[in-house]
Amino acid sequence: MSKARDSALDLIRGIAIIMMIAFHFIYDLNTFGFTEIPLFTHWAGIAWRCLIVFLFLSAVGISLVIAHGKKLNLQKFLKRLIYLGIAALLVSSGTYIMFPDGWVYFGILQLIWVSSIIAIGFINLPKTSLLIALLILFGSLFNQPNLNIFTTILEPYLPATSVDYYPLFPWLSFVFIGIYLGHFPYYQKIFSIRIIWLEVIGRHALIIYLTHQIILFGAVSLTYYLLN
Fold this sequence. Notes:
Blueprint: H1 7-31, H2 43-68, H3 74-98, H4 108-119, H5 126-139, H6 149-153, H7 168-183, H8 187-190, H9 196-203, H10 205-227
Helix pairs in contact: 1-2, 1-9, 1-10, 2-4, 2-7, 3-4, 4-7, 5-7
């Protein structure tokens, strides 16, 4: 596996970040009553959200293969887990202060953290990973119980709702699809165009994720209070 940067992967992350910012901006506008766009009830909004999450999580699987496909770099992997863990704690802490009745206890960063630990053992098993992904997605079609052991154990201590919740199942399947794509990079043909500014955004996806909603929510809330 080449050590050179995968520009297609950076582009995927960049596109996902831009779409996520747009999604959250509309969410904030809805929250303050500026708009009434059905992000969570209309099929288009639901499909858009799924696409954003798919791009993020498949990129996680691809990245694991690129970084550790030949040999697991334990130090690098643990360092990444520490960074992700700190970022996840910051999100949980910040939302607990802002939304005590709906704080983020298992959002996208927590999902990526846990999924990375699970998926690292399958990075050289692309076909098995794809099969696991398909089984998870197939199982999600049925009324199965919540298999997220963490939320099940801690349920008495968690809020009834969360402003950002992504359970391990079925979203883990997208990381396994990413592992498959890391070995069979069809995505490089789809995302073959070079858009440098999007690639730059993709390289700094984590810091943008951590800061964008602070800026957006602050701007929308300030506008609301100035107008009222």
